[in-house]
Design brief:
about 375 residues; alpha/beta; Rossmann fold; seven-stranded parallel β-sheet; alcohol-forming very long-chain fatty acyl-CoA reductase activity; FAR_NAD-bd
Length: about 375
């Protein structure tokens, strides 16, 4: 009988969309077994996903990912000071932490965002500090920028910016907490994805939010005439989206390099479409004939509020991204990924797959996994 190996890697955010895919990459390079913190409501989903990953690995040749104990699930919650792990043994062996768990929801209430994004991150940082880990990987977001007016790079963070919503503000505060630990000597790396959409090869996603609200609204209307809403200033704004596979591949690559310790990487599109170009590409992929109604922002917000709950509803919080003043650049990321073969594909090159998946899978939900 093979000796039982204690887990050296700890994950939050499994079985979420990004967490599941990144866990596969980590196991594939031989870093297992991995301990995953899972909230009780998602435990069965996590067990099913863990079986799928290990069974798929067993049919191939992916390092030690085919071991039955490669993924170990621990019930807990990052909102608890001890992560709910008082009775869990075997985690003193943890040397590396991947923290992905967060509330990814533009319309999230302040109290929930505070509990999960801010205090939850502080609790995971304490967990890592208590174990004197060798690596801490934190998934933030480009939108810690808030409504910064200008080009926002990896070198920016505390710029006196205002925020569109509680999601942005609490993710900003969470990254500040991580960066303070980094300044004090924690060997950490921060990854800031832009707006993450489905897989560029298959279109797969597990949540319809962000740009998907617009897509669903178009698909719910007659193909011979559909309508979208825009606001003045949208022609000067960019919508920076990146597919899941790029984000996961980039984090997997960068997290495996010693040179990434102490760095911040923005995983964004260096040449994103403007808002009108993004909408046009989405509409073209649906095959709908569509008109765009440009109306003042307060009126647009009122209209979306009144449409909420209908088949053509769009999350009102998305209206702030139609005239978002920030542009994102990623010089550190581009330099670090040079020679890796990893690049953000143009949105137009995979939008048809996103639309096709949404049409074939209308029952995918929009609720965040928290």
């Amino acid at each position: 009988m093979a000796a039982v190996t204690e887990p050296a890697v700890f994950f939050t955010g499994f079985p979420g969309f990004l967490g599941s895919a990144l866990l596969e990459r980590v196991l594939a390079r031989g870093d297992g077994p991995v301990a995953c913190l899972v909230q009780p409501p998602y435990l069965e989903t996590a067990r099913r996903r863990a079986r799928e990953i290990t069974e798929e690995a067993a049919s191939g040749t992916r390092a030690d990912a085919d071991r039955e104990d490669a993924i170990r699930l621990y019930e807990g919650d990052i909102t608890d000071p001890d992560l709910g792990l008082d009775d869990a043994g075997g985690l003193e062996s943890i040397r590396e932490v991947y923290h992905l768990a967060a509330v990814y929801d533009l319309g999230v209430e302040r109290e929930l965002a505070e509990a999960v994004n801010v205090r939850g991150t502080e609790h995971v940082l304490e967990f890592a500090t208590d174990r004197d880990v060798e690596r801490f990987h934190y998934v933030s977001t480009c939108y810690v920028s808030g409504r910064y007016d200008g080009v926002f790079t990896e070198a920016h963070l505390r710029e006196g910016q205002s925020f569109n919503n509680h999601y942005e503000e609490t993710k900003f505060r969470a990254e500040v907490a991580v960066r303070e630990r980094m300044a004090a000597g924690m060997p950490a790396t921060v990854y800031r994805p832009a707006i993450v959409v489905g897989d560029s090869r298959t279109g797969e996603t597990d949540k319809y939010d962000g740009p998907y609200y617009l897509l669903q609204s178009i698909l719910a209307q007659p193909s011979w005439l559909s309508a979208t809403v825009s606001v003045p200033g949208s022609s000067d704004a960019e919508l920076n989206v990146v597919p899941r596979d790029f984000v996961v591949d980039a984090i997997a690559y960068l997290s495996g390099r010693e040179s990434s310790v102490g760095e911040v990487y923005q995983l964004c599109d260096p040449s994103p479409p403007s808002v009108p170009r993004f909408v046009d590409a989405l509409v073209d992929a649906t095959g709908h004939r569509c008109v765009t109604l440009t109306i003042p922002k307060p009126l647009a917000r009122t209209l979306l509020d009144r449409l909420e709950g209908t088949r053509v509803s769009v999350e009102p919080a998305t209206i702030d991204y139609l005239d978002h003043p920030t542009r994102y650049a990623c010089p550190a990321t581009r330099q670090a990924l040079s020679g890796s073969g990893l690049e953000v594909p143009p949105f137009e090159s995979y939008v048809d797959r996103l639309v096709g998946y949404a049409r074939e899978n209308p029952d995918v939900g929009g609720e965040p996994m928290i």
